[in-house]
Write a structure and sequence with these properties.
Layout lengths: L3 H16 L10 H18 L8 H11 L4 H15 L7 H19 L18 H5 L17
Length: about 150
């Protein structure tokens, strides 16, 4: 925990946790982003003594900011703020992250985001057979095709 490598790893995790944003550059699921963010926080806490851990209120704020660009996920913060305004207790970090993961699951389901982050490629296929059309005289049939048989 006191080596130079450990300090550099902690610094890197702090930078990642404070700069990560769930935006269009993220190629995974919404749930995957939140779980990844929480895992990085856990790793940071494992590498530092408990006296240097972020307070739950700070972790909550950092996580809220990380997902703030997704309107359906930032609404959880707004709902929490409205509940506090009418006298309820604010959500703690653990409860907020549980609700956030649940909302991510629903959002991923609604958007049908594949679990592996890759979109499925679909190809349109036509049953066109050349002989079905060229043998019948539909192309270059001249006046015979357009002749009026009712005469």
């Amino acid at each position: 925990m006191s080596s130079t490598k450990a300090k550099l790893s902690r610094d890197k995790l702090v930078i990642e946790l404070t700069t990560l944003l769930l935006d269009s550059t993220w190629r995974g699921t919404h749930e995957g982003f939140v779980l990844m963010w929480k895992e990085k926080m856990r790793l940071l806490e494992d590498m530092t003594s408990s006296q240097y851990h972020y307070a739950d209120e700070v972790k909550l704020s950092m996580l809220q900011n990380a997902v703030s660009l997704v309107s359906k996920l930032s609404q959880i913060r707004d709902i929490n703020n409205n509940l506090v305004a009418v006298g309820s207790l604010p959500l703690d970090y653990t409860t907020y992250s549980d609700i956030l993961i649940s909302a991510c699951n629903q959002l991923d389901k609604d958007l049908e985001v594949p679990r592996n982050g890759k979109s499925k490629r679909t190809v349109n296929y036509s049953h066109f057979k050349e002989e079905d059309y060229f043998e019948q005289g539909y192309i270059d049939a001249g006046d015979e095709f357009f002749s009026n048989d009712k005469e």
